[in-house]
Amino acid sequence: xxxxxxxxxxxxxxxxxxxxxxxxxxxxxxxxxxxxxxxxxxxxxxxxxxxxxxxxxxxxxxxxxxxxxxxxxxxxxxxxxxxxxxxxxxxxxxxxxxxxxxxxxxxxxxxxxxxxxxxxxxxxxxxxxxxxxxxxxxxxxxxxxxxxxxxxxxxxxxxxxxxxxxxxxxxxxxxxxxxxxxxxxxxxxxxxxxxxxxxxxxxxxxxxxxxxxxxxxxxxxxxxxxxxxxxxxxxxxxxxxxxxxxxxxxxxxxxxxxxxxxxxxxxxxxxxxxxxxxxxxxxxxxxxxxxxxxxxxxxxxxxxxxxxxxxxxxxxxxxxxxxxxxxxxxxxxxxxxxxxxxxxxxxxxxxxxxxxxxxxxxxxxxxxxxxxxxxxxxxxxxxxxxxxxxxxxxxxxxxxxxxxxxxxxxxxxxxxxxxxxxxxxxxxxxxxxxxxxxxxxxxxxxxxxxxxxxxxx
Length: 457
Ligand code: ADP
What we know:
The protein is of the alpha+beta class. It contains eleven helices and 14 strands. The strands form four sheets. The chain has a five-stranded antiparallel beta sheet with strand order 4-3-7-6-5. A five-stranded mixed beta sheet has the order 9-11-12-14-13. It has a two-stranded antiparallel sheet with strand order 1-2. The radius of gyration is 51 Å and the shape is rod-shaped. Adenosine-5'-diphosphate (ADP) is lined by residues 358, 362-363, 366, 390, 392-393, 395, 403, 408-410, 413-414, 419-425, 448.
């Protein structure tokens, strides 16, 4: 097994091919040999029967009233060996070939009637047909024989041809198999070479896809798709690390500068308390940011464990509105729920709640005082839908493509509202973890509509 594995696929394929070829050719050769041998043997038997007719035809009456055979006219090569017996075992005739070839005499007397047997002789095996007959109304036993030599020679020739042909065919098959295997595996070699050069810094490289419809092409395509995903997650990780460290720096710098300023001169206790208080505020902000980042990365890497239940979206919207009522009141805003039917969806209540909280929180944050925020809950044939509609300033068209990116804040809105730029990305990941989608349905000067749609229960 180890020996087998130590060889390349190309060699293994070739060996398989050669092995299969040897088996097929051996079976084929055996079949040919069996066929040739059987038909040569049948032809010889046929010939012996014809010889019997010949022997009966060349009978001549002797002047003394006896009988004799005269086959001398027939060419020697086509004449059989012939001997004729009387029923009581007297040798009546033996032709010259039988005498020369020392055709067994008395030994053949006991042959059953009308049988063909192979008799071993000193030189070559002899095949003999023994049959009773009536010649000039006398009963006789006629025995015709022929050497099996030519037949055996013919078979030896066939064996020789097959034996010579077999290695030739196997060698040709092996060479052909190796060439075909090399040719078929060449794209893999090329892919291996290329894949070897692809590392973390060159993830944008792709394998060559020569024919996307064959196995190699499909392999390259799948590999390329994997590379694409790897590249995307590397990029995401890089961006995430850069963004996160940038965002974490701000509260850290604030804590540091508050501390430094506090230590610059001697102060009374109240002043120190105020300084520590504002440092703790920043620490809270930092902790909140870290929590949100953790939540986001768990949701995105699919580590967040979903506890699935059937969630009533109307109840969910009502509880979110109740929770955020204080924030809305501060801005004299009104959060109104508009339910149509009672859509339910299987999902993780807490994750869906977090998503909706972020949307309503944004709507409150970015809309002017005194405005109204509507949460519409309804369902389509397959989806349960929650729309959060506000009458805020809308999202500038150039920012729309980025609002779901981490840490993105539209330039005008962010300064006064002061978010982290993580709310929408967290909401999106949470909805997607539940098999749904979060989209910006509409945004204009009169407000925006964000839509959560999840598969209905
Ligand atoms: P933030 O923590 O800043 O709210 P989000 O990811 O929730 O971060 O939002 C990203 C940006 O999208 C916000 O800074 C804001 O510019 C814009 N945005 C989100 N929701 C709204 C909304 N309802 N109206 C106007 N702009 C919005």
